[in-house]
Amino acid sequence: MATARLAKAVLKGADGGALRVDVRTAARPGDRRPAVVICHGFKGFKDWGFFPKLAERLAVAGFTAISFNFSGSGVSEGDQFDELDRWGHQKPSTDLQDVATMVDYAIETGATSVGLVGHSRGGGLAILHAASDPRVKALVTWASVDHFLRWPEDDIRKWRRDGRIDVVNTRTGQVLPLFKDALDDADRNAAGSLNVTAAAGRITIPWLIAHGTADRSVSPEIGKVLKGASKSAKTELLLVEGADHTFGIKHPWAGSTAEFDAVLDRTVRLLAGSL
């Protein structure tokens, strides 16, 4: 079996922060391959749990796998939220610009075509970008959101009043303050450039929507909503029985699950047949 090699790069993010990038490929020097850009979620990062395993699997399957930390992720390298100011001032529109930067990077570095894989919030961003960029030829979303203000109304009102809302990293107990940037951005753009459901209706490329039936973070009903919004016969909904928001995977990686293996296999098949 081919062995994936890992290279790193640092690009400029939309807010001026760093986009820290991992590129995995099993190609020989000079070979051109399709690229898959991997978008992590709200409290995710490129080294979380299943992302390195996904990237390695894609690389040995014949793709160039590109994973990255959003410039507002709050994580520089590793798995620590150590850029709290960037975390606190993140916003979906900036993340969306970061996705565009990564697709540009894939094309500029020789990709023959580009696919997107996004988890949770990263799934919503991948949908938005794929709907507007004809260079993207395949889309996979895992447990995708359909909007970006996923808090109860009482919490949102308090957020508006106080100018911040605290988010707890359940893995470490670290409290991450999120300021009004994201809230104001969603208010301005929810009906326009950040309208995930409307974007879903414009997807014409092959699209796999994977969602666990036991997902308590993003209801599996959202997967059904996105499938219903799509007008394309190339859109497929995969409901994984009993799977949670991360298909049973934890961070740090402690081994795979049958649910994750099923999603990973279907993801590779869709991308291999489309790119």
Structure explained in plain terms:
The chain has 275 residues and is of the alpha/beta class. The protein is globular and about 55 Å long. The chain has one domain: Rossmann fold (3-Layer(aba) Sandwich), CATH 3.40.50.1820. 33% of the residues lie in helices and 23% in strands. The mean pLDDT is 97. It contains nine helices and ten strands. The chain starts with a strand and ends with a helix.
In what range is the share of β-strand residues? 15-25%
Structural class label: alpha/beta
Distance between the termini: 21 Å
Low-pLDDT segments, ≥5 res = none
**Helix and strand pattern:** EEEHEHHEHEHEEHHEHEH
Mean pLDDT: 97
Shape: globular
Would you count the extended β strands for me?
10
- Structurally, the number of domains stands at 1
Helix-residue proportion: 25-40%
CATH class reads Alpha Beta
CATH architecture identity = 3-Layer(aba) Sandwich
| CATH fold field value | Rossmann fold
Which strand order does the major sheet show?
1-2-4-3-5-6-9-10
**Can you say what the CATH homologous superfamily is?**
Alpha/Beta hydrolase fold, catalytic domain
Cα radius of gyration in angstroms: 17 Å
Instruction: Work out the helix count.
Output: 9
